[in-house]
Design a protein that fits this description.
Elements (H helix, E strand, L loop, with lengths): L1 H12 L48 E6 L4 H35 L11 H37 L4 E8 L4 E5 L2 E5 L2 E2 L1
Antiparallel strand pairs: 1-2, 2-5, 3-4
Helix pairs in contact: 2-3
């Protein structure tokens, strides 16, 4: 058993005694024909702050989309059209109830055997006229409400898009008691 431990120890210890690899040769200095990179922006440092990484250039633009608000004139027009539609529908309800009342006066639920009189004919005519008027006012009120809805959709204000082209990524650096965030953007 001791022999197995000795063999295992010699296998594991063998790489520890191997020669260390040689360092690669230093890179040759740049030739004068190569363009020099633009100078980097200086990092602002504060006492106790050690910047570890320089700012990197951003690859993506930042896109901000904001919706515009409706102006007061547009809101007033839409509200007046919708209000007119509601009033017209209310007048239609009035004529519908009048028509129903006149129709109930003319047609009892049970046969009465009473003669048809001029008063009953007037109630019958009033029920018909009020029913027609109710249909007309319902149609006008509904058309006004649909018009207000369509205009609300069609006259919706658009949105505004702003693109921000960042030059450098934000830099976060530790400071005593906190951190500091910095960066530059252009609009």
């Amino acid at each position: 058993m001791r022999l197995a431990w000795i063999l295992l120890g010699s296998l594991v210890a063998t790489p520890a005694f191997a020669a260390e690899p040689a360092l690669p040769p230093p890179a040759p200095p740049p030739t004068p024909t190569e363009p020099t990179p633009p100078p980097a922006l200086p990092l602002v440092t504060m006492p106790g702050m050690t910047p570890e990484y320089p700012p990197q250039s951003m690859r993506k633009d930042i896109v901000v989309t904001t919706d515009r608000d409706r102006d007061s004139k547009n809101i007033a027009i839409l509200a007046s059209i919708a209000g007119a539609g509601a009033i017209l529908a209310g007048v239609g309800v009035y004529y519908n109830l009048d028509s129903q009342d006149a129709a109930n006066a003319v047609s009892p639920r049970m046969p009465t055997g009473a003669a048809w009189t001029a008063d009953r004919q007037a109630d019958y005519d009033r029920a018909h006229e009020s029913g027609v008027k109710a249909g007309i006012f319902y149609g006008l009120g509904g058309a006004a409400l649909i018009t207000a809805t369509v205009m609300f959709i069609v006259t919706a204000p658009g949105s505004e898009t702003t693109v921000i082209h960042p030059h450098y990524a934000p830099t976060v650096a530790p400071t005593p008691g906190g951190a500091m965030l910095g960066g530059t953007w252009s609009f």
